[in-house]
Amino acid sequence: MTTRITVDPITRIEGHLRIDVEVDDGKVTKAWSSGQMWRGIEQILVGRDPREAWTYTQRFCGVCTTVHAITSVRAVENALNLEVPVNAQLIRNIIQTAHAIQDHIVHFYHLSAVDWVDVVSALDADPVATSKLAESLSDWSLNGPHEMKAVQDRLKTFVGSGQLGPFASGYWGHPAMKLPPEVNLMAVAHYLQALDVQNYANKIVAILGGKTPHIQNVAVGGVSNSISHDAPSVLNIERLMLVKNFIDKLEPFVKSAYLSDVPAIGAFYLDWTTIGGGVNNYLSVPDCPQDSKGTQFDLPGGYIDNADLSSFKPITTFDDKYFRDGVAESSKHAWYKGDKALHPFEGETDPQYTDFQDDGQYSWVKAPTFYGKRAEVGPLADVLVGVATKHEGYSKYLGQAMDTIKAVSKNPDIPLSAVHSTIGRHAARAVRCAVMIDTLKDQWQKLVDNIGTGDLDTFNPPAFPKEEIRGVGFHQAPRGALSHWVVIENGKIKNYQAVVPSTWNAGPRDADGQIGPYEASLLDNPVADPEKPLEVLRTVHSFDPCIACAIHMVDTEQNEIIKVKAL
Amino acid sequence: MNNNRKKILIIGMGNVLMQDEGIGVRAVEELENTYHLPQEVTVIDGGTTGMGLYEPILNCDQLIVADAINTGEPYGTMVRIANDAIPSFFQTKLSNHQLGLSDLLALLTLKGEKPEHVAIIGMVPHSLENKLGLTEEATAGLSAMVEMIVLELSELGVELKERCQCRIGHWRKEASLEVAACV
Questions:
Q1: Residue B98 and residue A13: Cβ atoms within 8 Å?
Q2: What does the DSSP assignment read for B147-172?
Q3: Does any CB of chain B come closer than 8 Å to the CB of residue A202?
Q4: A180, A185, A182: which is closest to A156 by C-alpha?
Q5: Which of B94, B128, B173 to mutate to test the interface with A (most CBs of A within 10 A)?
Q6: Are β-strands B8-13 and B41-47 bridged in parallel, bridged antiparallel, or unpaired?
Q7: How many other CB atoms are there within 10 angstroms of residue B77's CB atom?
Q8: Is the pLDDT of residue A288 over 70?
Q9: Comparing C-alpha atoms, which of A536, A509, A478 is closest to residue A14?
């Protein structure tokens, strides 16, 4: 018997996403991913000064503000062929890396963990046993029995008040919840500690970016931070030491707690290391430019076909032709006019709303392709590209995560291919987060060293020609490859398209009818209870969806409850 | 300045690129540009963020949030929800941002660090198109929303003095340029 399940909206994500699946014999046989919100924010940019575009793009989304600011100035700089002083590259690198660390921590602990962790079950845990378990996994300093007891007491009061807040949408007691009470309590303790830890990363962004939530220091041609060795009001040694202080505070949590929590939890969900693989093609863009031209990068990028690391093709510069020529977006199954896949410079956004049509149009998100193929972007792609290029950090931390899951599950035979899965995506994010810590330290040291040589440059002024110019800016954002495509004429924006990571992953079927990464990853997922499709949420959440609509409004009308319809 | 004064945080929430969705941000911008604010009052343009507001909220004693609120009442209705009414308001209702303000407040409650006073002041929006400018109706209601914030502050013991000359804020200026460009 076929059961159709509609989950609308998917909760604990940014934006409005609807997922439909058909379930046969307890397994998903067909899936549809549908963005439920029209995103035409780019239209606001047409006719504006390209130097100001970033102040608007950072309002695309409430999570990825910094990400869209930096990518926007890169796109305009690329169009102008404008070099960016090394200090400016490094300052941007520090900001974006700190942001990535904050984003990964929040995604796992605050948005996804409750898919795996039964918060209510943590009340039954023995705090002393919890502490012992946690201390056997890592040397994180806040794993003591008193800490665990204090967390449990607070949780008791909180649950007793009947106000579950962020836990209210969890599926307590669901048969797919497998963790022992002690692992649940450990996860809740780290959930609360992670709140303070993520804030250290936020402070780094604020110190260099002028303020958060919206940074102020980005400019086409560099950054607006003035550097001085000793002047009090600018970027000086004292402020740089403050940044270093917060980097040092981030490191123990990420490398001890986060990097061991994910594989340890994964060890209790080994079946989920074989479920949830996507389209198996992976795309990542290089990042952390080291030179003014953007030809040397600390983080590698490239494309991997059909999960075969030997197929890896690199993307090497901000001007990379292989990347620039390979991207197209199809709206055959999206609510726009036209069937043909178009390059972003030629991108059109003429809405044509139908209804939700299984074989026709069913999403506001377009379907991007890379040389005609669907590709997954995000930490899993970044980690695989890291391994393919023999990047030291990626190989090291992935090895560490594999060792933990093997040890906790007492199963030494888990293959590396287990990363192509729902748990694999979470593990890859933890691995990437550990790499980001090392990258952050490295970029900070390089900035200090470069300033030490007497180089205080942070800005090259842009000049716009009359004729039409085109540029692409990209960024290895926390959710994956992000690119902004800009066409400028006479110093004004003529066309602007943002191909965001969740477009790559959440897109509907493309011009050739190929399914997208979310859709592919849901196939063969078990669904124990069609009324409580926790398994669907697990796989979709593993991508860290961000539908970039950035509506904040408190809505008491349309979203009374999550609609789960089983027909 | 008396250091014993309670620290008050005012956050304007919303997306300024989506018309009335940005009313909260526009309201706190008007507040800052119309009145002199004492040192103990901090104003933040929160945009559509969530976790980025963790530290400012952690560090305040009393919190006022200005936001667009869809209660199902007629467009333009002014709304005030405070303290104990907030959790029950959010209980079965989801904000579009799953880790938004309500979750943040719940997490702070769980940590035992919630502000002693929380009030949400809002307006039911008319239109959420991709534009900077507010609708006419929301523009008309903007000053009423500002006055509600002033009243809230007054109840917290803070009386504001008007600026001799009202300044024009960034988003108001940008929105007026957009209108000019359309003509």
A1: yes
A2: HHHHHHHHHTT---EE-SS----HHH
A3: yes
A4: A185
A5: B94
A6: parallel
A7: 14
A8: yes
A9: A478
Backbone torsions φ then ψ of A256, nearest 5 degrees: -95, -60
Domain A2-566 has CATH 3.40.309.10: no
The answer for A338, left when phi > 0, alpha when psi is -120 to 50, beta otherwise, is left
Q: Which two tokens stand for residue A227?
A: 């550097």
Greatest distance between any 2 Cα atoms in chain B: 53
pLDDT band at residue A562 using 50, 70 and 90 as cut-offs = very low
Which DSSP letter does residue B19 get?
A: G
Give tens-digit pLDDT for A181-216: 999 999 999 999 999 999 999 999 999 998 777 889
pLDDT recorded at residue A541: 92
B69/A65 Cβ within 8 A: no
Domain ranges of chain B: 8-182
10-69 of A, contacting B, C-beta below 8 A: 11-16, 40-41, 43-44, 47, 56, 59-63, 65
Closest Cβ–Cβ partner in A192, A550, A553 for B111: A192
For chain B, the first-to-last Cα distance in angstroms comes to 49
* Residues in A 136-165 with any Cβ partner in B closer than 8 A: 154-155, 158, 163-165
Three-state SS string across A4-47, please? EEEEECCCCCECCEEEEEEEECCEEEEEEEEECCCCCHHHHHCC
Among A467-476, A492-501, B174-183, where is mean pLDDT lowest? B174-183
Instruction: Annotate A357-376 with b (16+ C-beta within 10 A) or e (fewer).
Output: eeeebbbbbbbbbbeebbbb
- A551 pLDDT above the threshold of 50: no
Cα separation, A326 vs A60, in Å, equals 25
CA distance B149 to B66: 8
Percent over 90 (pLDDT), chain A = 75
Contact between A151 and A188 under an 8 Å Cβ cutoff? The reply is yes
CB spacing of A552 vs B70 below 8 angstroms: no
The answer to whether residues A125 and A149 touch, using CB atoms and an 8 Å cutoff, is no
Place of tokens 């998100």: A365
Mode of pairing for the β-strands spanning A301-305 and A287-289: unpaired
Phi, psi values for residue B120, rounded to 5°: -105, 125
Q: How many CB atoms lie within 10 A of CB B10?
A: 26
Residue A553: pLDDT band (50, 70, 90) is: very low
**Backbone phi, then psi, for B149, in 5-degree steps?**
-70, -40
Residues of A in contact with B21 (CB under 8 A): 551-553
Q: Quick one: B8-182 is in which CATH superfamily? A: HybD-like (3.40.50.1450)
Chain A environment of B15 (Cβ under 8 Å):
59, 62, 550-552
**Residue A254 clears pLDDT 70, i.e. is over it:** yes
Any idea which residue has 């047409």 for tokens? A46
Torsion of CA A545, A550, A553, A555, to 10 degrees: -30
* Burial of A522 from C-beta contacts in 10 A (0-12 / 13-18 / 19+): buried
pLDDT tens for each residue of A115-135? 999 988 999 999 999 999 999
- For B34-77, write each residue's pLDDT tens digit: 999 999 999 999 887 778 889 999 999 999 999 988 777 888 89
- pLDDT in the model for residue B175: 84
Does residue A298 sit in helix, strand or coil?
strand
Tell me the chain B residues in contact with residue A166 when contact means C-beta distances shorter than 8 Å: 99, 103, 106-107
Write out the two tokens for A282: 């992976």
